[in-house]
Every structure is written in structure tokens, then in C-alpha cells.
Amino acid sequence: MSEPKSAPIEQLLEIMVTLRDPQKGCPWDLKQDFSSIIPHTIEEAYEVADAIEQKNWSDVREELGDLLFQIIFYSQLGKEQGLFDFNDVVAGLNEKLTRRHPHVFSDAKFADDEAINANWEAEKAKERDAKGHDESILADIPLALPALSRADKIQKRCSKHGFDWDTIAPVVDKVKEELDEVMDEVIQVSPNQANIEEEMGDLLFSVVNLSRHLKVKPELALQRANKKFEKRFRQVEKSVLEKGMRLESCSLDMLDNEWDKVKRAERKE
């Protein structure tokens, strides 16, 4: 009688152990540590997001598997160093989710979404206090987040504690003010690049704030703008090549004309 097959997650954990086995493991996997895997984790997370954006569900499944492997890898490293293992990771997550959702897993009642969010933030504040580190409300916002996303999180956290405008007019005024300050630096007789960079940063931060007030995710909005621009520009490239020309030989007016044609064609679709 054959032995029962391991559950898929157990098999995955066994595969990870084998990959890290000093005698018969994979040389690449054996070289890795917590820090060296970080770029791969970030890349895999973006590949999941890209597959979802493309609505390619078979790719989503595959990329989620690749992202899960990152968690398994970190867990194995933790186990080897006596820090934690995969079961500890899952147990910690289970505890956190049930504690942060008392309206689901206990008899707690909240009047509306705002009350639910307030409880969520209160629980996160307790977690920060329990860690006994930086007491700032911004302490647990990851430094490694993309800058647009991190700016959005910083602003949301400050807003929840009353540091925010109540209406959109001053938000728009701030964007205009920051743009003016950029141009003030640009038109100097001897522009200071460091000052221009600083003012551009302030302008981008204010645009993120405007996005937040308009309930737009700035990272997602920019990703979609990139995608739209790339699609249009590829059409311009194609049109130019079909005319037997190269981009470098075209004037800006000619390229702008092709760009406008692409936009008009989109509106007819």
C-alpha cells in the first residue's frame, strides 16, 4: 500500500528544505540570505500585480506561486537560524487577522466602516506600542515602498490623526504653489539642480495628496498612464515604420501629428 501524498503546502516546504540541503541542495539557493532575496520578492510582487492588471488569470496563479515561494524561502532561513518557521508565520497571521476583525470573529459591533477603520488603526497602534520601538504614527510604514505609494500611506496616516485639509480647494492651491516654486528655481540665471530636485519632490508629494483627496491610487494611476503612453507610442512607431521612415528622421511636428491620429482612432473604438 502506497504512502499518502503530502498536502501541496507540505510538499513545498519539503522542496525548500531539499533546495537548502548542504549536501544535495541547489548552489544558488544555498548562497542566499534574507537580504539577497529582497529584490526577488519585490519583483515577484510586481509580476503578480502586472498579471492581475492584464487579467491573465493563469499567469496570476503562477505568479502567486512564485510570490508564495518567497515566503517559504524566508521561513526556511528563519528556521535554520532558530528565529521562526512557516507555522510561526501562519500562526501570527491567524492571530492578527482574528484580533483586527472582532466584528467578524467575536461579538463586537461597529456602526459603520469608519468605526471599523478606527478600530483597525487602534489595533495597529497597540502593535506599534507592543514592539516598543519608534512611537511615531509613521513608524511602521515600510521604507522600501515605491515613493508614490509611501507618500500616499504617510498622508493617509496623518489624515487619520487630523493633519489634513477638509476640502479640495487648498489641496489644488498647494499643487499650483509647488509648481510655481519649481519654475522659480528653473528660471534662475544659474539654476541649482539640488534645489530643483527638492522642489520637484514637493510638487510630486502635493500631487499624491491631490490624488488621495480624489480617491485615486497614485501608483496605479501612474502605472496606467505609463501603459497608455506606451500603447500610443508603439502605434506611432508602427505608423512611422510603415511610411519607410525612422523616428530620428521625423520632426516633432510630424510625431505629434501621428500621436493625434492615434488618439483620434482610440476615441472611435
From TrEMBL:
Keywords: Hydrolase. GO terms for biological process: dATP catabolic process; dGTP catabolic process; dTTP catabolic process; dUTP catabolic process; response to stress; TTP catabolic process; UTP catabolic process. It comes from the Bacteria. CDD domains: NTP-PPase_MazG_Cterm, NTP-PPase_MazG_Nterm. Its EC number is 3.6.1.8. Residues 32-105, 174-235 form the NTP pyrophosphohydrolase MazG-like domain. One of its GO terms (molecular function) is ATP diphosphatase activity. It catalyses: ATP + H2O = AMP + diphosphate + H(+). InterPro entries: MazG-like_dom, NTP-PPase_MazG-like_C, NTP-PPase_MazG-like_N, NTP_PyrPHydrolase_MazG. It is an enzyme of class 3 (hydrolase). Belongs to the nucleoside triphosphate pyrophosphohydrolase family. This is Nucleoside triphosphate pyrophosphohydrolase.
